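INFO  loader      accepted 1 record
INFO  loader      residues=279
INFO  predictor   begin
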Amino acid sequence: MNKTLYITDLDGTLLNSKPRVSEYSLNKINSLIEKGMNFTIATARSHESAAPLIAELDLRLPIILHNGVFVYDPLKQKYIHENFIRTETVQEIIRILSTIEINPIIFTKSNKNFYTYYKGFQNPGGKKYIKSRLSKNDKRFRLVSNFDKALSEKIITLIIIDRKNKLEEIHEKIKDEFDLNFLISEDVYSVDSYWLEITTKNSTKKDAILFLKKHLKAEKTICFGDNTNDISMFEIADESYAVENAVQELKDIATDVIDSNKEDGVARFLEMHYNEELK
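INFO  predictor   done
INFO  writer      dumping tokens
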């Protein structure tokens, strides 16, 4: 393969505010892929959630899902890299969270099926997220009175949605108890709503990109993002570009800042950069 691998985040980066890939971005990126550009995505979304949004992109390389928990090959239609949290660890997290009356949302895999378990609505942010998924007829979601079924399956991640200060308090309470990856990021579609995501230690976008770089024998990585969950991949990329609407923390470590997601910043950069590379 060509030695450079281009990797973009979806929400707030490649996707516009609708959210979708604009016609302009779709046409430009597909044209560049046809010319030989090695292009893929790294998203917090699951395959089920991302698939309708990227259906028209001519993706030929494995994609990174759940912020690095999975790497999925769309051509072979199979997961080539997976990371799950130990059941005993999740049991202990649930126990500790129950002492402060917090219930996580738990994402699992059972054979080839995926499920999302939740115990009602705890706050406006969580309610908005779950209701948006139910309104799209997302069949993964299961309202439960306990997490016994979730604990019998492979556990992908635990999510808590709340205000940032509340999540920081929860993080402080549990971070030293477990050797896990904790990530707090802003929900780009909901004002004053943040996510605390808990995954295995080596399940970040950085870890998945390092796996993918080796898997594809790529020599160089150029990435694009907007949120704190993109920090890890910015730290190991050869070049990293934050869209104009990105959080300041990401802009501070980026190679440069490009046009916003509403202005097709990623596609415009790729068109200019890749065509220069071909010369």
